[in-house]
Amino acid sequence: MSELKERLRADLTASMKGRDEVRTRTLRMVLTEISKEEVAGRAARELDDGEVQRVLVREAKRRREAADAFGEAGRADQAAAELAEGEILAGYLPAQLGDDELVALVARAIEQAGAAGQGAMGQAMKAVTPMVAGRADGARIAAEVRRQLAVS
User: Which residues are within 8 A (CB) of 128 and not within 5 positions of it... i.e. 6 or more apart?
Assistant: First the structure.
């Protein structure tokens, strides 16, 4: 079993014992999503830490989007609940890159890939994505790549 999945299960047990309803609900949800991912496809398999992390990133993004939607609809209580779940999930993810770090990584990736102009967007994204590895949102990465390619 992956180390991250094992940690999630242990934290679920602790939250159940501590009667932390929000944490329990959130961890149950993410463990269910991990289980669904494990049985999807032709054969059941065990996810590694990287794949579990991708599930966590996806679910955290869903929580942010749902919180935005609830906030726009005037449902502040639901938005707050979604944000609380997102905060719990963020605790299992690596620290997000700051703007300066992201700019530097994108610049290095573009230089290494030899990308120039907007037509090289895919080439640059292919180079920078492994370097970032879940430490920044894809839309944020794409915006920075687009900005730097426009300048060059």
Answer: 105, 106, 109, 110, 141, 145
- Distance of alpha carbon 37 from alpha carbon 150, whole angstroms: 38
Asked if residue 104 lies in contact with residue 84, where contact means CB atoms within 8 angstroms, the answer is: no
- DSSP-H helix ranges across 18-137: 21-39, 49-72, 76-90, 99-113, 121-132
Low-confidence ranges of the chain (pLDDT < 50): none
pLDDT tens sequence across 45-73: 888 888 888 899 889 889 999 999 999 99
- Do 11 and 57 have their domain in common? yes
Query: What is the distance between the alpha carbons of residues 93 and 60, in angstroms, rounded to a whole number?
Result: 9
Find the domain containing 40 and state its range: 3-90
Angle value at C-alpha 45, between 44 and 51, nearest 5 degrees: 130
**Of the candidates 91, 34, 42, 80, which has an alpha carbon nearest to the alpha carbon of residue 58?**
34
Judgement on whether residues 85 and 105 belong to the same structural domain of the protein: no
Q: Give Cβ neighbours of residue 89 (< 8 Å, ≥ 6 apart).
A: 26, 30, 56, 59, 60, 63
